[in-house]
Inverse folding.
């Protein structure tokens, strides 16, 4: 049965009374500037309607058809648009903050400069969309289809693009800090000049993607596919690259990269080592000792050879550890050493080293404390001073002492 | 300080130029750049010590960036260090950053005897079991000395001179040759 036609005035009156208008036939209607806040219009037909600057805050438009609708400057904040059809709609400058667009169709829609912060777009169809300069902060695009879309200059901090299809998407100069692209398909995507600090790209496919001048500091690229990526001038300091496949990264810059399985910074190396990562891992494993999480070791005396690499993810209490020349001890993120003494070697603390019966660190040639690391200890430097590195965020109660002059050492 | 005052202060800078030696107390509402020598107390929103600069004394600032020589007592929110930190220095900060020099020719930073007190106290998280184990040692002035700032050390040392009945002294292995 066909619904009788309704005038814009009648519609506004019904909405003011809080009436639900299901399957309303409003296609082609001029509703520009109308006050339709909290309107209940499920499955309404608004194809080609003029909804410029309309107030549809908190409106219920689930399953509505808004194909080719003109929604420039419309306020759709908190609106319910699940499974709505917005194919080819013009939403430029519209406010869709916290709107629910789960499984909506926005294919070919114009969302330039739109506000989509906190919006839910899971499984949404957004292919060939224009999202240039849009605010996508904390929006959820998980499993969405964004093939061939333009997101240049978009602000997408902490946005979730996990498992989304972003083939050939343009993300140039976008702000993608702490965004999540885990498992996303980004083949041939353009991320030129994008800010991707601390973003997640675990198992993402970035084959033939353009990452020139992109900031990828602290990015998690573990198990990502980096075949034929272009990284001229990109910054990869602190990027986690364990298991990443392919990719010549020589054209990028990085103070260090992390090749550890856990991505906890326990296996730092130069970018040049990325090319030889498999050989390096082999050599690394040869002299490697590992103490896993959950184990507790008390009152032990441990000696490690020259060049050994010891990783502790367990708990050590009152142990004496002697490290040979060039040996390195890594206190992993789960590791905790309490009232232990470490003599010689290089020490990298990602977990905790706490001692109160000083000195706990004697003749340490290098002390590195990561951003999540904590050290409470007295360190007696070797004759050649200790090399120190502390990351912002680390916690320290450290008493640094100069080397004990010859003949004055305690026995 | 109002917003305008703050931005004005940010745009202005007090410079102690190379070849200049300043002795006394320097309080500033704008950034202080030290290329010469400052001997005394220095308070400013931001202090930058260049490679040629030296600051000895009490330094209070929101942000301190030192590539020169630093000595004394430093209180700041953010500290970035390279260059050198002389003996008898205490650095108290919310965050500290020290980078490892990529080239091995020269150390990024050298520390004399000093105390770094950065962020929340990690030893506050010590578990109950270890707390029991170390309770005796914590009670000794000798153990406490390791986390007592240099400025407070005299008083700690005086305590250490007093006889203690529960001294827990562990033999220390010598450094490797």
């Amino acid at each position: 049965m066909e619904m009788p036609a309704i005038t814009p005035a009648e519609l506004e009156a019904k909405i003011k009374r809080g009436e639900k208008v299901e399957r309303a036939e409003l296609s082609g209607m001029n509703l520009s500037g109308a006050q339709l806040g909290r309107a209940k219009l499920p499955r309404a037909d608004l194809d080609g309607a003029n909804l410029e600057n309309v107030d549809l805050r908190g409106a219920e438009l689930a399953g509505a058809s808004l194909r080719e609708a003109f929604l420039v400057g419309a306020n759709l904040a908190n609106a319910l648009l699940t499974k709505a059809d917005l194919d080819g709609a013009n939403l430029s400058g519209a406010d869709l903050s916290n709107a629910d667009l789960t499984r909506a169709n926005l294919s070919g829609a114009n969302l330039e400069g739109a506000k989509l912060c906190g919006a839910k777009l899971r499984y949404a169809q957004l292919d060939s969309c224009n999202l240039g300069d849009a605010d996508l902060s904390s929006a959820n695009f998980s499993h969405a289809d964004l093939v061939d879309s333009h997101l240049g200059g978009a602000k997408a901090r902490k946005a979730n693009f996990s498992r989304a299809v972003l083939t050939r998407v343009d993300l140039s100069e976008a702000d993608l800090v702490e965004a999540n692209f885990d498992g996303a398909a980004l083949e041939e995507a353009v991320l030129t000049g994008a800010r991707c600090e601390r973003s997640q790209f675990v198992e993402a496919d970035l084959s033939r993607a353009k990452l020139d001048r992109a900031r990828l500091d602290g990015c998690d690229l573990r198990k990502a596919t980096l075949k034929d990526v272009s990284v001229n001038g990109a910054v990869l300091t602190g990027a986690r690259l364990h298991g990443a496949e392919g990719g010549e990264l020589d054209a990028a810059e990085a103070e260090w990269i992390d090749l550890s399985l856990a991505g906890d910074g326990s296996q730092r190396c130069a970018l040049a080592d990325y090319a030889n990562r498999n050989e390096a891992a082999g050599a690394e494993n040869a002299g490697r000792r590992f103490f896993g999480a959950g184990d507790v070791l008390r009152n032990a005396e441990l000696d490690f050879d020259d060049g050994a690499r010891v990783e502790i993810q367990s708990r050590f209490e009152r142990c004496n550890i002697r490290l040979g020349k060039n040996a390195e001890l890594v206190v992993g993120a789960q590791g905790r050493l309490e009232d232990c003494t470490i003599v010689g070697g290089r020490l990298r603390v990602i977990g905790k080293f706490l001692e109160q019966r000083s000195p706990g660190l004697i003749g340490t040639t290098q002390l590195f404390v990561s951003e999540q690391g904590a050290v409470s200890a007295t360190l007696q430097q070797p004759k050649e001073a200790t090399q120190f590195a502390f990351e912002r965020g680390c916690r320290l109660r450290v008493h640094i002492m100069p080397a004990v002059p010859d003949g004055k050492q305690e026995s | 300080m109002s917003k305008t005052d703050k931005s004005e202060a940010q745009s202005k800078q007090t410079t102690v130029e190379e070849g200049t030696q300043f002795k006394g107390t320097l309080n500033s509402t704008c950034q202080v750049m030290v290329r010469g020598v400052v001997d005394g107390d220095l308070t400013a929103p931001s202090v930058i010590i260049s490679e040629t600069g030296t600051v000895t004394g009490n330094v209070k600032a929101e942000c301190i960036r030192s590539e020169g020589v630093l000595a004394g007592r430093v209180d700041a929110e953010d500290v970035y260090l390279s260059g050198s930190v002389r003996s008898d220095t205490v650095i108290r900060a919310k965050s500290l950053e020290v980078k490892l020099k990529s080239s091995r020719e020269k150390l990024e930073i050298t520390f004399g005897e000093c105390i770094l007190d950065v962020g929340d106290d990690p030893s506050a998280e010590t578990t109950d079991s270890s707390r029991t184990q170390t309770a005796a040692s914590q009670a000794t002035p000798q153990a406490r000395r390791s986390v007592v700032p240099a400025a407070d050390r005299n008083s700690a040392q005086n305590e250490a001179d007093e006889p203690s009945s529960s001294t827990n002294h562990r033999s220390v292995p010598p450094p490797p040759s």
